[in-house]
Amino acid sequence: MRRVRYTTSHPRDFVRAIVDCMDANPAICDHIHLPVQSGSSRVLAAMDRLYTREEYLRRIEWIKSAKRRYSLTTDIIVGFPARPMTISSRPSTLLDQVQYDSLFSFKYSPRPNTAALRMEDRVSDDEKQRRLLILQEKQRAIQIRRNAALIGGIQEVLVEGRNQALGQWIGRTTCNRTLNFRTPIPMATT
């Protein structure tokens, strides 16, 4: 098998042995999606996430100290109904520390059968939107910088299709980056 993509793990279930296994198996792609949800241990506890910011960051250290270089992505929610955040627990400080390759970011919205449903949602929708835009802009700057470091390099791409209108091939690198390209390249044959 040429490629195996490890998808998402709950951070509490992500153990060091997973990184060791990925390092030992070159067919496993160089990408890990580890959803953090919040940069605050207090908010994570209110969400019943069963890990702290420190425990999550320990897992990030395992990934960053691995033999291979892994692309790291996450999910973050802004505006969870909790007391105001301290500066050190804001999601943007986590972005500075981890330097994600990409993230999925969302405004908090009530979900059935969750503890948060019974909490008073004290954060206005306008404030949630403001926080989301700040977070996304910070991530955009990180992502541009990380992607720029790849310019001039060679990436293995699994071609997934072709956009005829633009005359581009579309595929994904082993780090799960979408890559559009026009230059004809020699394709591996099996």
Tell me, rounded to a whole number, the average pLDDT. Answer: 89
Q: How much strand content do the residues show?
A: 15-25%
**Helix amount, in percent?**
25-40%
Extract low-pLDDT stretches: none
Secondary structure layout:
Blueprint: H1 16-24, E1 31-33, H2 41-46, H3 53-64, E2 71-78, H4 91-98, E3 102-107, H5 125-148, E4 157-163, E5 168-173, E6 178-181
Parallel strand pairs: 1-2, 2-3
Antiparallel strand pairs: 4-5, 5-6
What can you tell me about this protein's structure?
- By secondary structure, the protein is an alpha/beta fold.
- Helices cover 31% and strands 18% of the residues.
- It is built from five helices and six strands.
- The strands form two sheets. It has a three-stranded parallel β-sheet, with helices on one face.
- A hairpin with a 4-residue loop joins strand 4 and strand 5.
- The longest helix has 24 residues.
